[in-house]
Amino acid sequence: MKAIKLICVVLLAFCLPLSAAAADKRVIAFAQDTMANDFRKAQVYEVRDEALKHPQLSFVYSDAQGRTSLLIRQIEQFIEQKVDLLVIGTNDERAVVPVIAKAYKAGIPVIVLDRGIKGTQYTTFINSDNIQIGAIGAQYIAERLGGKGLVLLFEGLQKADVTKLRSKGFLDEIGKHGGIKVIKRTGNYLRRDAVVEMEKLVTDGIRVDAIFSESDSMLSGVRMVLSKNNIDPRSIVMVGCDYTSEAQQAIRAGSQSGSVLFPLGGKKAVEIALKIFAKESVPKHIFIPVKLITQENVEHVPPIF
Domains of the chain (ranges plus CATH)? Predict the structure, then answer.
């Protein structure tokens, strides 16, 4: 591997500098959309921790702070540094396609993690079946409501493919129940944004029978608003996604009905990176299984973080 020089710390927020001592190591660089999101931050740390188990690997990462333009510049910088492999966590399925293609054409293997892109010039895409995630949430809610009621769908980032797929899976499945009406709000996978939107609903006097949130972080914000307004979270069927330790505690307490376990994918990314470095062939698309966690199995399944 060629020696790598850290070009600009300003662009690579939280990036770890590569010393001369690391020059003989394979460098995995993670260009992450944002570290403000609990899931995205944990994803980076899982890749880091898994990479540290292998002395031949070195790890750096960047935080685009939710800004697509900054994410693109950070990927550009990793390309200039000639890192050995890129892991990409994007917030826009289209805007990053050209720069990812540039890295791929430059001979840098690219692992697209979790959120897909509208392009094919990458090495492999690791994710879970997001349509299935939405369908699982819908099936559980429809059963709990007996096929009747008002359901709130809390969506994530509108330009992320995971949002579109989870919403499709949910709406297609819930649409099989004519007695259920759905309203939608956008929380961008962030607790604070979900708080703002839920406050508006409560202020407007809109009461729902169930909520499917496309992340547990958003559902955490929902519970905060409900409790603040003296509405018992246990009175609403609420299903999240990710299965964080916070969600595990809420499920135990009965203030959250369930969560669809969505693996971080960091360990799998490092596993695939090692295969790529060993010049082994890897699949273009790798699915990681998902499953519903409720009070029935909450004590038997560890949270993702």
Answer: 20-128+264-288 (3.40.50.2300), 130-261 (3.40.50.2300)
